[in-house]
Specification:
- The protein is of the alpha/beta class.
- The protein folds into two domains: about 5-130, no CATH class; about 135-225, no CATH class.
- It has four helices and eight strands; from the N terminus they run αββββαβαβββα.
- It has helices at about 5-10, 120-130, 150-165, 220-225, and strands at about 50, 75-85, 95-105, 115, 140, 180-185, 195, 200-205.
- The strands form two sheets. A four-stranded antiparallel β-sheet has the order 1-2-3-4.
- α3 links the parallel β5 and β6.
- The radius of gyration is 20 Å and the shape is elongated.
- The relative contact order is 0.12.
């Protein structure tokens, strides 16, 4: 049977055709479908090829996901790593060993040559190295409350933009322009993610909540910049 291209299977995602491994189906570990053959009930099981991962630009669940034409934009793709020698526990023909992540770009179709099993943070870091040069130079700030209303959050984003400007950083790095914040995290909450139209990257893990959430750590700029 003819192998299905990405254009035939997932619609108008022309940027994906720049990588062969985005275009062709591999064997399915859930139903055993051969490469190029539809899964059971014409359903493409997640992980048969590299596709944009859930909650990253290109596959978002909210209106914050806006692809800007003519500009590189970092995202994450993923697929499954199957062990076809070991049946799955729920009737699958194989056992899923890991979710494999890699950095990718929505603008030019680039994808990283290195993939990262179980490490989404490493994948988005690769993508930002490609799409947003200089992101590692932004100072670490304390996180804003996740449930802040839009007005309060917009005010905080403007403060961060001004804070970056004081360091001579490019405007494209600021959250107001789809850039990056590097934030302190507490305990196990270290996941880097796409949020409200920018990338929220884990900068450091602290033992307890900072006293003033949302305030840039401008009192210790030399210490913060020394982390890079």
């Amino acid at each position: 049977m003819e192998i299905l291209s990405v254009h035939e299977s997932v619609g108008d995602l022309a940027w994906m055709s720049s990588r062969e491994d985005r275009c062709f189906l591999s064997r399915c570990g859930m139903c055993g479908a051969r490469p190029g053959v539809l899964c059971a009930a014409n359903f493409f099981h997640t992980g048969r090829r590299f596709e944009v991962a859930l909650c990253w630009p290109g596959r978002a669940l909210s209106g914050d996901d806006v692809v800007i034409e003519g500009r590189c934009q970092a995202t994450v793709e993923d697929t499954y790593l199957w062990d076809f020698d070991t049946p799955g526990r729920h009737g699958d023909v194989a056992t899923r060993r890991a979710i494999v992540h890699r950095g990718a770009c929505l603008g030019c179709g680039w994808a990283a040559s290195e993939s990262h099993p179980g490490d989404e943070a490493a994948a988005i870091a690769d993508a930002l190295d490609h799409a947003l040069i200089g992101w590692r130079s932004v100072p670490i700030v304390t996180r804003h409350h996740h449930d802040a209303n839009d007005k309060a959050f917009a005010k905080w984003a403007r403060q961060i933009t001004a804070f970056y400007d004081g360091y001579g950083l490019k405007a494209s790095l600021s959250p107001e322009h789809g850039g990056v914040i590097r934030t302190t995290r507490v305990g196990g909450g270290s996941r880097s993610h796409w949020s409200r139209g920018f990338y929220d990257m884990c900068g450091e893990v602290v033992a307890e909540d900072p006293d003033r959430p949302g305030r840039p750590l401008s009192e210790r700029p030399e210490e913060q910049l020394g982390l890079f």
